[in-house]
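lol forgot to send this yesterday, sorry. struct tokens for the thing we talked abt
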């Protein structure tokens, strides 16, 4: 469940703009703000089943876009690889006695960490 929530939340970040405003808002409330179906239903003056229907349809749109474009999965791969590279550079840096090279490696590590942040 946690993995699905995280996955839909990530897909919402990447593809949320293609959803209707209502779909986007409901998904955001459900996955990012941890609102219940009842709370969302009250906010939109519709039934819980209506909310569930909107959520399922919007989730399908996001998953379909990811299946076609793979932007989120590529992002995760790049983020993970960047972290790996930063870790390896830290190991190399700890074994270098040259201050100038060590400083440059430290700068590269910081740049990689900034790129990998989400």
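and heres what i got for the seq, position by position
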């Amino acid at each position: 469940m946690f993995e699905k929530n995280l996955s839909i939340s990530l897909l919402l970040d990447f593809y949320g703009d293609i959803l209707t405003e209502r779909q986007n808002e409901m998904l955001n409330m459900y996955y990012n703000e941890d609102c219940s179906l009842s709370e969302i239903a009250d906010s939109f003056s519709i039934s819980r089943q209506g909310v569930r229907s909107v959520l399922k349809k919007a989730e399908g749109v996001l998953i379909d876009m990811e299946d076609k474009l793979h932007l989120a999965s590529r992002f995760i791969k790049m983020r993970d690889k960047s972290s790996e590279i930063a870790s390896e550079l830290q190991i190399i840096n700890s074994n270098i006695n040259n201050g100038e090279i060590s400083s440059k490696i430290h700068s590269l590590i910081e740049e990689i960490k900034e790129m990998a942040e989400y």
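Residues 28 and 44 are 13 Å apart (CA to CA). anyway ping me if u want another try
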